[in-house]
Amino acid sequence: MRSYTPLEIYGIAVRSEISAFQFYDRFLRAIKRKRLLPDSAPLVEKLIFLRGEEEKHRRLLTSLYQEEFPKTKLVLPKKSLIPPPQIPLKARLLPSKLLEEAMKAEREASEFYRTAQKDLTNEKTRRLLFYLASMEDSHYYLLKVEYDLLNTFADYESYKRFSLEHLGP
Questions:
Q1: Which of 59, 119, 124, 164 is 20 to 30 A off residue 147, Cα-Cα?
Q2: Is 128 within 8 Å of 112 (Cβ atoms)?
Q3: What fold does the segment set 6-167 form as a domain?
Q4: Do 169 and 125 form a contact (C-beta atoms < 8 A)?
């Protein structure tokens, strides 16, 4: 990865959080539209949680940017330089494939934050990027638990039954 200025890092990070929020939002709407899971299913609850986390990260980054660069407008790249999940949600929805792509995106975001923090001199921003990398890692593991659980069952209906019976509504 090439070196970025602090201004660029903030823009890239905010764009990434927006893209991740949009992915989780589309994922949730697709699940609801196709009625794959009830609203109280554990996977749905986790996706709602992750969508909220991405929004919190965006707000946190924006706030710290304004604090660090009060006279400079935040410029976002047109598209995320941290590759967002690449799934056409209009295609047949396969939860395991969506989870794989979401896990991959969380890993790439974590790697970006870890690498970018090395180029910064502002300690507060370095700590923020370390925190965000750690949060992206926790998102990965949250998704991985669902992915592993989903792949334990022979079919998706069995997974849904297990989720509702043992993990609760």
A1: 59
A2: no
A3: Ferritin (1.20.1260)
A4: no
